[in-house]
Task: inverse folding
């Protein structure tokens, strides 16, 4: 289970490598080409990762990603938690988030619940990274993941910055990815090419996360790079929408982290411009959307202890209602244990939906599992039990839930609840 | 783990029997005497339980409780779910809930998601029970627990009603209790005497529940009897407040059931009247409150797979905020796995509180575990790690969480998340 052994998820299994877009829920857009793991970053980006000593294991724990463009464009999204970590606060309050030049990311320490000292520690590493890279401090974003309440070993990080700066290169995305991983069982990384009217642009991403938060190792990160030319407003708009449709729609354990961070950076080095409200914007948006959705699904698939994942798709006439129902199903330990054991016990879905929507009794809910209707208007209907039991053994399972009314639809991707989850989170104490 | 072997919870362990009030969180009221399990129901009540064939195991599955008073007083509370079971709908819509004469309760089948047929089935058993007992249909409440989506075997229940009616007696509360149990590992039952100004009254209760809902065996029930004379308004008021302070404040898996039912019945047979707003009302209310709180804690203690339980007590200035924080902590699988392993990883509490209160950053949260402060204004503070680790090994653990502001306080009792929970809910498929 060591991080990074399994390049590109389960592509390393015997036989032909699996394409990046392999979930039933994310068709590969036609104008997007998978370049494979070794293609490297888009023009204008360099990255590296080193072990600087934050992790007692000696595994890589410090990553640096740099955009060499003088006036790059970027967009960022952070956790909505009430208890954000120091690097999140610092990045939000003191960075030019639409013009980032670099990201300094570490694993092994979240620098959360560390107060004034945590902010000072973060500021020191930000300053050192800016100096090493030769950019302004306000253009260096920080991202940390690891144990909450531990202080950052600043001296180790400062030495690490010097080391990692010396190794920056376009093919450094794999090393950067390794340095940000914690309990991840496999890499979540992509190198894509998007065909636009002005020529091809490259779109790469490195993502980490195996649980919204895990025992001492918190958080999801997703860093995305492109050499396309985007205006700040376009970058922010596209990234915001795509994050909402991907990372905001998945749950391993329903636990929002103190450190979640997602950043898009655009070097513009390809010279291919994406004009607002153009056909190219649509095509790039589709590529970005598919990329983030596949990464989000990979994160759920790598959810702590996960053996099977599901999509709850909920339709109805009331947006808040369908959202509550989808979250209720996705976060129910009873639904998650049933998913784990491929148990056709859909009564747990009725229960979770009803519990999420108090005051609506009697609720006319329709339920279909893998396309097989089992409940109509809140009442059990006959179905082929053997067929259903077989269908639920798939690695990706779909629950369709229909509530009264029309016009609204939502989805949540989620993992099962297994013995392995308990082992990871209970048996290995701090 | 068979139901009913372990009379009165863990009282059966070697040595002196444990008193009913044994949780640190529920001091026994001074004017309340524990009569022990064999004392029987208050005057005016009879009960019995039989095996009528709903459960394939042949275990008891049908219980009948009758109040012989001509004009009894009662009060009831039901699940708030949007998908209530047929017996809940029928009891709510067609019963005189302030004047119930009988309760027909079964385990082994929830009669939920069964639509029109489920309501008809429930109505038939209600009619048969009314006939057997010799009371009006509208005075017979129904309560079912078991598999969702299964139809009630009406013929078996009708035969069972005749059998159980023939066995009604004041000492039948133990049999009644057994007939309503499902995955419960031990009985949750009490026989108390409350000293009032007009003399003693008896207060008994039978409770079931080991998870708000469990795999195919759903629900919590609590049936309470007294021979005190209460007015309907007083009964409803006291019972409503006490249910809110007990069953509404506990969580095994955060899952509201389709069938939750709690009913208080007052025979008045003691002739001891409890006048509204009197000292006696206060004393009786204290007894009822302590009874329901101890039963709620027993339910959490018997939570599926539970080895350790906790109370999250949250204080602050904003009622909705402290409620969200308390529920967030109690239902976090990360907090629950940490509780299980006595892991002093309080970063998970910071994370759960922050996640429950988005938009409040940076949140000045104080945390103390077992009275040992670990976090002040959102920042880690020094503490004796060995002392904390030792304290967390208690069977009942307390987390104190203080948010900004003053004047509001809430609590949630919850169980841990163990391998056994996953085993119960995932490994035994339907």
Result:
């Amino acid at each position: 289970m060591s991080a990074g052994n399994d390049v590109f998820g389960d592509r390393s299994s015997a036989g032909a490598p699996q394409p990046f877009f392999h979930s039933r829920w994310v068709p590969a857009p036609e104008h997007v080409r998978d370049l494979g793991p070794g293609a490297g970053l888009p023009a204008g980006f360099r990255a590296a990762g080193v072990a600087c000593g934050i992790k007692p294991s000696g595994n890589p724990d410090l990553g640096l990603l740099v955009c060499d463009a003088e006036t790059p464009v970027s967009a960022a999204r952070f956790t909505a938690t009430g208890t954000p970590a120091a690097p999140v606060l610092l990045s939000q309050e003191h960075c030019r988030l639409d013009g980032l030049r670099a990201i300094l990311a570490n694993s092994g320490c979240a620098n959360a619940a560390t107060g004034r000292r945590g902010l000072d520690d973060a500021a020191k590493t930000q300053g050192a990274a800016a100096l090493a890279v030769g950019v302004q401090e306000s253009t260096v974003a920080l991202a940390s993941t690891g144990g909450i309440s531990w202080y950052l070993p600043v001296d180790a990080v400062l030495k690490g910055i010097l080391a990692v700066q010396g190794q920056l290169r376009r093919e450094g995305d794999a090393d950067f990815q390794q340095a940000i991983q914690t309990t991840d069982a496999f890499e979540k990384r992509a190198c894509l090419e998007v065909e636009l009217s002005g020529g091809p642009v490259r779109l790469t991403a490195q993502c980490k996360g195996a649980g919204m938060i895990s025992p001492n190792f918190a958080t999801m990160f997703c860093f995305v790079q492109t050499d396309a030319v985007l205006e700040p407003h376009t970058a922010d708009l596209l990234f915001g929408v795509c994050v909402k449709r991907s990372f905001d729609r998945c749950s391993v354990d329903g636990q929002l982290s103190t450190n979640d961070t997602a950043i898009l950076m655009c070097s513009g080095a390809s010279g291919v411009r994406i004009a607002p409200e153009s056909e190219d914007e649509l095509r790039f948006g589709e590529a970005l959307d598919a990329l983030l959705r596949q990464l989000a699904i990979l994160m759920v698939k790598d959810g702590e202890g996960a053996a099977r994942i599901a999509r709850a798709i909920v339709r109805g006439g009331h947006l808040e209602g369908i959202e509550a129902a989808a979250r209720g199903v996705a976060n129910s330990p009873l639904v998650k244990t049933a998913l784990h054991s491929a148990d056709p016990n859909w009564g747990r879905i009725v229960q979770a939906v009803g519990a999420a929507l108090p005051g609506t009794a009697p609720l006319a809910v329709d339920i279909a599992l893998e396309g097989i209707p089992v409940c109509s208007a809140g009442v059990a209907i006959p179905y082929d039990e053997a067929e259903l039991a077989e269908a639920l053994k798939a690695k990706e399972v779909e629950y369709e839930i229909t509530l009264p009314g029309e016009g609204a639809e939502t989805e949540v991707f989620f993992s099962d609840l297994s013995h392995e989850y308990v082992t990871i989170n209970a048996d290995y104490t701090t």
User: Anything to note?
Assistant: Chain A is about 30% helix and 25% strand. Residues 1-14, 212-218 of chain A have pLDDT under 50 and may be disordered. Chain A touches chain B through 74 residues (CB under 8 Å).
